[in-house]
Amino acid sequence: MIPAACMEKKCRKKRQPRFREKFPRLRKGGKNPPSVTQSPCLITFGLYSTRDCQEGSRLFTVNPLFRIMTKIAKSTFTTGTGTPGQFYSLPALAENGYPRLNRLPVSIRIVLESLLRNCDGLKVTEKDVDNLASWNANNPGSYEIPFTVARIVLQDLTGVPLLVDLAAMRSAVAGLGKDASVIEPLVPVDLVVDHSVQVDWAGCTDALEKNLDIEFQRNAERYEFLKWGQQAFQTFSVVPPSVGIVHQVNLEYLAQGVMEKDGVYFPDTLVGTDSHTTMINGIGVVGWGVGGIEAEAGMLGQPVTFLVPEVVGVHMTGELREGVTATDLALHVTQMLRSHGVVGKFVEFFGDGAAALPLADRATVANMAPEYGATMGFFPMDERCSDYLRQTGRSEEAITTYENYFKAQNLWGMPRN
Q: Residue 345: phi, psi to the nearest 5?
């Protein structure tokens, strides 16, 4: 039998070194690594940002393979202005070891583009890209996907607390004597005020004006705070009440189809703090609803992580008969998919029937994704999407860029089989 004193001594010898003992330069009051003091990026939740890791922090070693992978995939296409635009080419990736890539579902390929573009060897690794590029419908696997979205959409009930968090971060930074403006969402964030709006007047011609007056008087402090947020943060905007519900505003106004940053073009993708964010899938935009914590992580540039999904294809044929509405179709699809079982899966519609559906009908079916249990109800991009963008006020240059980009990615057009 080992004496208790000896056992305690033996345990002390086996004790793992603490974090600060492994990295003594991070001790309280000690000297920080150069990247911490020199980089304007904040360290969020105790994690180094990608920029910190790339600017010389000694805590990480970046695998150079991701630089080779992203360099191979970077290409150009012609934008709507006639000038070249850079993008991360999925066809180029396919030519370098992934011959089946062009047969993957459109929704999977859009997520793959995000992985490829954001592959930094840290948040997104070359293994993440390889896993998804090798996606197999019969055996998708069980790995996680770190999906970095292009933007965030918030409804007011969950959006206001997130703005409070950002304000608290700025206050804390200011209290340390630093520049508070370093606290900034790393992706565009739109907050739509619709969930908390109340109706006090109805049945009269000036009901809208009266309701708005009462709304702004009743919640004056909240609207003052939202106005401050819109002025304080460059990437944060607020859509006031009376414009429309969040899904309508997202579809008709906020959706861009293709986005651009630093000369690089990429698909419009998002998460939103409402389960019916999936309505945006009707216009070929990958997106779904998440909780407030996931949305806040996305605002701070962190990937939205989820298990690799199965994709259920719905082959549509024919056209809707006269008198059959989009609601009828959505309810029928919901009943059918509930019977099949699509919880946690991507649903992707294709075929001549899907191509014949007007975009408003596609959006109605996509909006019901939470009811049939899927993560998304996705319709690929085609001429119907371009027509809708044109009808809702997008410029011809933007629409041409949108079409040329997805054609360059071999993602344009509704798959027929």
A: -110, 160
Report how far Cα 23 is from the mean position of its chain's Cα atoms.
34
What angle is formed at CA 89 by the lines to CA 347 and CA 97, rounded to 5 degrees? 85
Half-sphere exposure (CA, 13 Å, Cβ side) for 62? 20
Three-class SS state of 361? helix
DSSP state letter for 410: T
Classify 385 as helix, strand or coil: helix
Strand pairing class (304-307; 144-147): antiparallel
Angstrom distance (rounded) from CA 234 to CA 381:
30
Gap between the Cα atoms of 362 and 228, Å rounded: 37
> Rounded to whole angstroms, how far apart are CA atoms 288 and 1?
60
- Count of Cβ atoms closer than 10 Å to residue 259 Cβ: 16
Phi/psi for 187 (5° steps) reads -130, 155
- Paired residues of 192 in beta bridges: 155, 239
E strand residue ranges, 82-160: 84-88, 144-147, 151-155
Q: Are 155 and 195 in contact (CB under 8 A)?
A: yes
Per residue of the chain (417 residues), give pLDDT as tens.
445 444 444 444 444 443 333 333 333 333 333 333 333 332 222 232 333 333 333 333 444 455 556 666 789 999 999 999 999 999 999 998 899 999 999 999 999 999 999 998 899 999 999 999 999 999 998 999 999 999 999 999 999 999 999 999 999 999 999 999 999 999 999 999 998 888 999 999 999 999 999 999 999 999 999 999 999 999 999 999 988 899 999 999 999 999 999 999 999 999 999 999 999 999 999 999 999 999 999 999 899 999 999 999 999 999 999 999 999 999 999 999 999 999 999 999 999 999 999 999 999 999 999 999 999 999 999 999 999 999 999 999 999 999 999 999 999 999 988
On whether the CB atoms of residues 106 and 380 are closer than 8 A, the answer is yes
3-class SS at 2?
A: coil
User: What angle in degrees, to the nearest 10, is found between the helix axes of 383-391 and 359-367?
Assistant: 100
N-term to C-term CA, the chain: 72
Reported residue count of the chain is 417
Q: In 3-state terms, what secondary structure has residue 56?
A: coil
Contacts of 174 (CB under 8 A, 6+ apart): 180
Structure tokens at 120: 């930094």
pTM flag (> 0.90) = no
Separation of alpha carbons 132 and 135, rounded Å = 5
